Every structure is written in C-alpha cells, then in structure tokens.
Amino acid sequence: MTVSTAPKYYVTTPIYYVNDAPHIGHAYTTLACDVLARFKRLDGFDVKFLTGTDEHGQKVEKSARAAKLDPKEFTDQVSENFRDIALRMGFSNDDFIRTTEERHRIACSAIWERLLKNNEIYLGSYAGWYAVRDEAFYADSEISANSNGANIAPSGAEVEWVEEPSYFFRLSEWQGRLLEYYDNHPDFILPKSRRNEVISFVKAGLQDLSISRTTFHWGVPVPNDKNHIMYVWLDALTNYITAIGFPETKTGEYARYWPADLHMVGKDILRFHAVYWPAFLMAAGLEPPKRVYAHGWWTNEGQKISKSLGNVINPFDLVDRYGLDQVRYFLLREVPFGNDGDFSHRAILQRANGELANDYGNLAQRVLSMIAKNCGARVPKPGQLSEDQDEALIGQSTALLPILRKHMDTQAFNEALEAIWSVVRAANGYVDAQAPWKLREKDPSRMNTVLYILAECIRHLAILTQPFMPEASSNLLDQLGIPATERTFGAITDEKKQLRPGLRLPVPKGVFPRLIDEEIK
Ligand code: MSP
Question: Model pTM greater than 0.85?
C-alpha cells in the first residue's frame, strides 16, 4: 500500500432531502465544494469530496406515500436525480452517500452505542412541537400563528404537536464545552456574523435533544430498542463519518481524513452542524470538524424561491440555456459568498457577456489568433523584456496563486474571481497599450515578446480558472498546447514549465460565445 504524503483536504456538502427535485440551492452548495475540491487537488492536496442524499425521516416518508411508492423504491428513484445533477454540473465528488445504505446503518448504530456507553443518552418522553418540513423540534416560545391561524416555527414551517416516548441526548450539559470550542477555534464557524448568532444561541442555554422517534418507522433502528428509530438529523449528520469508514477510526480513511476540513452548509441548517454535530461527536469521543461555513440563500428575481410560488430554478435548464461554465462562474461571482443573492436572467447574461465573452474570452481569442496569423502558429520567441511593462504583467500573473490560496481558504470565491479578473483586465490593457498588430512590420521581435508575455499570462489564467470553469479552461490549455501533466499549480511555480518557444499550436477557437437571449431586452 502506498501512503500519500500529500496534505489532505476533506470537504462535504449537506446531503439532500430527496423529496424535492434538485434546484439551484442544491447546485450552489455542491458547486462551492466542487470548486474548493478542484482547487485543492490542483494545489497538490489529497482531496476527499463527499456529497449524497438524506433519505430517511417523516418528510421523505410522506413524499413516498404521496407518490404511492414504498419509501425504499421512492428513494431509489429520486436519489438518481441528484447523481444526474452532479454529472450535469461537472461535480467531481469522490463518493456519493445514501443514508439508506448498509454502511450507514452500521455507522449510525456505532455512534449511538458510543453515546449510550458514555451515558449521553437517556429514555424519556417528548411532548412538544415538530416541523416535518425542517425535521426539527421547536420550543413553545418559538411558535407563532400565521395568517391562516396555523402554528409555525421561526422558519415559517408549520408545526404539529407530538407526544411520544423518546431517547434524549444530554445536550444541556454541552453548553460550556461548545462555547470553549468556539472560543479556541475562532474560524470554526464562518462567516463571522453567523458565528456570533450561534454563540448567542448556545449562550441562551441548551435543552436536551430528542434523538429518537416512535410514531413512524422510516429510519435507522435504534440498536438497543427496536421500537425507536434514530432522529433523522443524528442519522444524517453521521454520513460525514460513514463515508470514511467509521466505526473504524484507527486506520484507513477515517484516520486519514477526519476531522473534516470543511462542512459547507446553507444558513438554514447551521445550528445542526455547528451545535448538535460537534456536541454529538465530542460526546462520542470523536473530534469535531475543523470548519462549518454557512452560505446565503438565493432569491429569484427578488422573490423567495418556493414550489408554491412556482419559481423554482432548475439547474438543468439554466445550464442548457447559458452553458455550464457560465452558470458556475455566475453563481460564485455574483454575490459575496456568505451573503444572500438574487438570481436574474439579466444579471447572468451581463456577466457571461461582459466578463466571460468580452474580458476573458476576447483576450484569449485576440492573442491566439495573432499568434496563429503572425507567428506561423507557433509559440513566439521572446526578446529582451521591459521591466515596467512585460515583467509587470508576468509579475501580476505569478502573484495570483498565493492570493487565491488565501481567498479559497476562507471560502471567498467572489474575491478569488475578482483577483483573477484584475489580471484579465491588466492583460487587456497591455494588449491595447502594446498594440502588437502594429508591430508586425515595424518591430517583429518586439511583437514576439509581447505575444509571448500574453500567452504566458493566459496560461496562468487558464490554469487558475480550472476549478471554476473546467471546460473553458481546459479548452484554452489545449489551445496553448499544454499537456495534461502540466496543468496543476505546480506548473505555475516551476519556471521550467513556461511555454516553450517554437511549440506548434492548434487552430484557435473562441471559448465563451456571446449569448443572445431573445427574452431579455
Ligand atoms: N437534508 C438536510 C441536510 C442534512 S446534512 C447532514 C437538508 N437538505 S435540503 O435538501 O433541504 O437542503 C440542502 C441545502 O440546500 C441546504 O444547505 C440549503 O441551505 C440549500 N438551499 C435550499 N434552498 C436554497 C436557496 N434558495 N438558496 C441557496 N441554498 C439553498 O437540509
């Protein structure tokens, strides 16, 4: 067996409820993780990127019933939609977990046994509010009435009164240790504003948590009591360790990858990940993850996205309409990651045409066609470089990688893209200032230098945009004649990997078409 000496990076998406078709929210969370996973792989990390589906619980059971299917049959069908979206969006996940798998039942039983052994669980009875939509329990003080007189949770979900025997987790005893953990790990919860919310919630006091149900049966059986199934959130959160071979902790993937470097989640499910999950883990004698990042929510043309409003954005349609790389770029560029964002067709068109087709696409197209026409389709040989012009642009290009590392390590995707675009713009400025087309007759050697510098700059850009826009970037790298082995970030820091003058290049072709949308004026 070969043991990798590369640093590891374990990143996870939430596992998605299969009662719904995949929508833009699901695609967004997984996209963010995909970009990080690709970035880290290119940067030499041994990456594990996990996604999957959350298939137990009342909500899924209800949907199965509505579809007149047995829950197992139903989940087998709908879980496929999430595999399909992963394929369509170019997601590079290394595993896809389903909570109905046997490996997961084993892991859930094992975490339960650990909690039981550590005296963290007791049998009692639950009487209180439950929201099936959120699969969450709510305190009386959190409930209000909506305009129809129905009782609702702060999330807007309708609640029902539940009374049943239940096992409880002694969450109330974890307040101090959780606060201490947040204190000692200031970047455990990002962004900072969300961290503060979680800390206030925990400071306000924690109640013991009901972690089993008896009034329905679609779940993982409690190992010591067959009348109970495990609460779907304890079941779901455990997926993050199931996928790395838990309960085996001493060797194998758990030993290599745990604690996870990042659980990416939406803001609505932060509490489960930043309060309950680290408490469950610590109580089971396991380490908490290193970071939970809560991103914001998308609205559609200013409106909340909901099935009842009929404005759900289907990511398959979006990709068909605008192209995969365009959608990937837009979602991560449009809003500062962590904030809420508004989707609009106008906005995606503007970015696809302005920043992709005009700024980046045109830069590459102009330079590659000049090389094809004026340099016999071969990488030109540079002459003497000028410090303030040529070296300045190359300097900016090589300075990008450490800047991007910093932004990616805090999940600041939009800032990473802005940094890349500052170089795209600088390169376009350089083309205009040097006007290589005018040098052909006058000073061909200077023209060669200018085009070489530009080709090198595009090589840097194309290597660095791979995590965000894998298709267009690989297309550009093909056009620059870069072999597959020289597309990692190592090729940026290694001077020997610079473009070799004389290398024959293929016929250039545009990578970002200008989009015309008849419906948008
Ligand atoms: N099954 C749970 C997660 C269990 S993880 C151990 C769940 N599933 S979900 O399918 O309802 O939601 C998954 C993710 O989609 C959440 O991170 C949620 O924030 C995200 N989004 C759902 N709608 C969204 C938007 N409109 N915008 C952005 N993301 C949103 O919760």
Answer: yes
